[in-house]
């Protein structure tokens, strides 16, 4: 193994804070012994700080309308070839009831940036779902006003997921026309101020992305002190301007996940659906190098294939019971246990302790 790699890995193993250069060195782990050592340490750190439980967070994708025109996403407003939908509130509540029967402690209410819904309407959906069970509610509805975030928080939203996608401001603006990284980060800070447990994340393998950019993604999430960091590979969609771009590399995604675990030892890291889409073993592999969360799709079956942010999304042809059974079997197969609780962040528990 390279001397600089051994040195950076040793510092990470001792719990020392890694600098940008060391993070880049670890992200460039070479196949074989370097990768094996990186993954083994990430798995050890995950076990030390978060134990062997895997937290299941059930996603209900309640609308695929979106006002944005992101170059990479199948839900982009310019895509006229997609069938749009909004799930009626009663069906959302029914899906939440089924999730409660299956034992879920967290529901993720996710949509495109659909401004058909006012802040109060989103708050009402949250109240209705919160009334089903003692769920932790994660909202994932994009960039809204601070007032809307406040309404959702008061209605019972515990967490908010807002991926920054890339820490490169120029690449961000290019991929997401009409939006800026600065505005994104401003909202992530609002969410923290309003008392949410905050999730962010990035894509791996974007055009023009470099190891330096990936290091900056991890450092940005460290600066934001996120409770969850979602890192998944870019997958091109055939109805977007990026249809001919190559997909992100599974190996690089796993390395980014492992390095994130070393830099963010108490942060929840999902084994993403995108990894499972590119490689049938992708989520199992992620659980072996730092991940401790899986987010099964619990949307009603008739809507699943229409929420096509990328094609052939893993689980899109299943119903909720099939998704749940497959994921729980996967967790047991790798020798881990399914959490029966809400999976609140250990950081949050620490913050709530008296001084």
Automatic annotation (TrEMBL):
The keyword 4Fe-4S applies. Signal peptide: none annotated. One of its GO terms (molecular function) is transferase activity. Gene3D superfamilies: Aldolase class I. One of its GO terms (biological process) is sulfur compound biosynthetic process. Its cofactor is [2Fe-2S] cluster; [4Fe-4S] cluster. Residues 52-274 form the Radical SAM core domain. This is Radical SAM domain protein. PANTHER family: 3-METHYLORNITHINE SYNTHASE, BIOTIN SYNTHASE. Residues 341-355 have a biased composition (Basic and acidic residues). S-adenosyl-L-methionine binds at residues 165, 176, 184. SUPFAM superfamilies: Radical SAM enzymes (SSF102114). It comes from the Bacteria. Keywords: 4Fe-4S, Iron, Iron-sulfur, Metal-binding, S-adenosyl-L-methionine. SMART domains: BATS (SM00876), Elp3 (SM00729). InterPro entries: Aldolase_TIM, BATS_dom, Elp3/MiaA/NifB-like_rSAM, FeFe-hyd_HydE_rSAM, HydE/PylB-like, rSAM, rSAM_sf. Binds 1 [4Fe-4S] cluster. The cluster is coordinated with 3 cysteines and an exchangeable S-adenosyl-L-methionine. Pfam families: Radical_SAM. It comes from Desulforamulus ruminis (strain ATCC 23193 / DSM 2154 / NCIMB 8452 / DL) (Desulfotomaculum ruminis). Residues 333-355 are annotated as: Disordered. PROSITE patterns: RADICAL_SAM (PS51918). NCBIfam families: rSAM_HydE.
């Amino acid at each position: 193994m390279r001397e600089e790699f051994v040195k950076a890995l040793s510092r990470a193993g001792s719990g020392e804070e890694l600098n940008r250069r060391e993070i880049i060195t670890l992200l460039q782990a070479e196949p074989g012994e370097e990768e094996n050592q990186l993954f083994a340490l990430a798995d050890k750190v995950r076990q030390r700080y978060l134990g062997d439980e895997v937290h299941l967070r059930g996603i209900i994708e309640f609308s695929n309308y979106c006002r944005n025109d992101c170059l990479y996403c199948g839900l982009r407003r310019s895509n006229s070839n997609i069938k749009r939908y909004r799930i009626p509130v009663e069906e959302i509540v029914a899906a939440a009831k089924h999730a409660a029967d299956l034992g879920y402690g967290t529901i993720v209410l996710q949509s495109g940036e659909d401004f058909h819904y006012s802040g109060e309407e989103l708050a009402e959906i949250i109240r209705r779902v919160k009334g089903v069970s003692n769920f932790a509610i994660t909202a994932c509805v994009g960039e809204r006003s601070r007032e809307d975030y406040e309404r959702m928080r008061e209605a019972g939203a515990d967490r908010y997921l807002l991926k920054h996608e890339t820490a490169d401001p120029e690449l961000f603006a290019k991929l997401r026309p009409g939006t800026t990284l600065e505005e994104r980060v401003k909202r992530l800070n609002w969410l923290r101020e309003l008392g949410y447990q905050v999730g962010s994340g990035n894509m791996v393998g974007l055009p023009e992305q470099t190891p330096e950019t990936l290091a900056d993604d991890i450092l940005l999430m460290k600066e934001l002190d996120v409770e969850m960091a979602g890192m998944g590979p870019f997958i091109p969609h055939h109805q977007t301007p990026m249809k001919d771009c190559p997909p992100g590399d599974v190996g690089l995604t796993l390395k980014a996940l492992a390095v994130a675990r070393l830099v963010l030892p108490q942060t929840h890291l999902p084994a993403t659906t995108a990894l499972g889409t590119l490689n049938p073993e992708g989520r199992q592999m992620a659980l072996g190098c730092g991940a401790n969360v899986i987010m099964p799709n619990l949307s009603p079956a008739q809507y699943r294939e229409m929420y096509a942010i990328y094609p052939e999304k893993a689980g899109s042809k299943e119903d909720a019971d099939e998704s749940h059974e497959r994921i729980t079997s996967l967790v047991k197969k790798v020798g881990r246990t399914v959490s029966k609780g809400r999976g609140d962040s250990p950081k949050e528990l620490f913050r709530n302790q008296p001084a």
